[in-house]
Amino acid sequence: MAASSHRPTKAERTSAAREAARKLHAEQAAAAKRKSLWVKLGVVAAVLLVVALVVMIVVQQRAASVPDEGAIPAGGNEHGGIVLVSDGDGGVTVDSSLGGGTINVNDAGTAEEGAQPEPRGLEESADPSQMVIYVDVNCPHCATFEEQFSDQLKDWTANGDITLEYRNIAILDGNSATNYSSRGANALACVADQAPESYMDFASALFAQQPTGELTNDEMADLAAENGAEGLDGCTDSMQFRPFAKFAQEAAMADAVPGTPSVWLNGQVWNAESDPDFVAWVEGAIS
């Protein structure tokens, strides 16, 4: 007697198809989950790689050795300052009689315990009056000072009432992972050297950036270009004037400069407590 064959019913075929579809869906879901996991692991690995690269770059920047000797930018003097004067046409530029040559950090001297502030190169009877300002691009009080008085400083200088000397120091490098204070001082020296008429505009713009955080070298070059000093990428990304900035910092320490901003006019220091009206204090001295 022949064996009987069973042909699946329509219901059975439908049920089998559904089961196959369920298994396929389950397999696809599992595969997608595995793929998602690998994608996530890949993203994490990429992030970790980027972090590692950033850390490596930061370490390299912190460890980069600044030479003891280097160039003095146009307008720079032997005290680590950049001197601004009237251009004779209502504007301000660096003093073209200054700059060139080299400066050596070893000549800055060392601080003496208990020494009173006595910055080198101050004059009591300069004509026009000599103003010397110590600033740090990463200093919030310096940013406020620049915001309040930059235009007035420019007017006094353009009118020939004062020579304006900025000593850009790096007192806050210890608070920066990238030596921003020193890099900013280098960028300012680059502008003084290559676009002297743009110095004050760039300085004002750079200090205005302080509340938003540190800039990269390329961002400082872009900011310089926006303020009339183009083509500085190579300079801001180099150590061309880092020895000059390092000298300014070491000299400020040796001269017991108390902090930033610190202002001297005709050899006298501005005391914000006894003379809270800075403009009146300056006007009284230059008149």
From TrEMBL:
Location of the Thioredoxin-like fold domain: 128-279
Gene3D superfamilies: Glutaredoxin (3.40.30.10)
CDD domains linked to this entry: DsbA_family
Name listed for the protein in its UniProt record: Protein-disulfide isomerase
TM region(s), chain numbering: 37-59
Highest taxon of the lineage: Bacteria
Signal peptide: none
Example of a GO MF term: isomerase activity
Pfam families from the UniProt entry: Thioredoxin_4
Protein keywords: Isomerase, Membrane, Transmembrane, Transmembrane helix
Matching InterPro entries: Thioredoxin-like_fold (IPR012336), Thioredoxin-like_sf (IPR036249)
Region described as Disordered: 103-126
